[in-house]
Amino acid sequence: MHQNYLYVGSLITSVIGAALLLFGDFAGWYWGSYYAGYEETGWLDISFDNLLVAPILLVAVALLIFCAYVSYLGLMDNLEDSFSRFGIFAAIGAIGIQLGVFIIFALINIIEDNAWWPDVGFYGGVIGGALTLTFLYLSNQQKTSFK
Fold first, then answer.
1. CA distance 23 to 135
2. Is the Cβ–Cβ distance between 138 and 71 less than 8 Å?
3. What is the pLDDT, as a whole number, of residue 1?
4. Rounded Cα gap, residues 115 and 14, in angstroms
5. Average pLDDT, the chain
6. How far, in Å, CA of 123 to CA of 138, rounded?
7. Quick one: which of 22, 7, 20 has its CA closest to 88?
8. pLDDT tier at 3, thresholds 50, 70, 90
9. Average confidence (pLDDT) over 99-127
10. How many Cβ atoms from other residues are within 10 Å of residue 78's Cβ?
């Protein structure tokens, strides 16, 4: 029985990425002047305040959770090759969704001349997705090289 310990890495990074994306702020913005007495701040996250963006980010969370499931199957030696590729595509999709949302967020705030920043949900989700993609890809390559 061959254990591929790269699946441990992909399991950990996908779960942490999904959790940070789900429970952390994705990005934030600030507009106004403290000294003039008007200011407005806001955060982009998965909440009822962001009904337009929350479902899109929830898809990225679901894709990362699917990657965790694929990783679990790989650890248990129950992973088929075609299903392994779905995990790789899910990680790519999660990263793409997050980067797309962030680019649109950044462009809107640049046009509106707001101060803006990525937050823990963005970093956790994108880095977690990228590491998950790397681990799943390497485990898939390692698996095919043993055949």
1. 24
2. no
3. 42
4. 30
5. 90
6. 22
7. 7
8. low
9. 95
10. 9
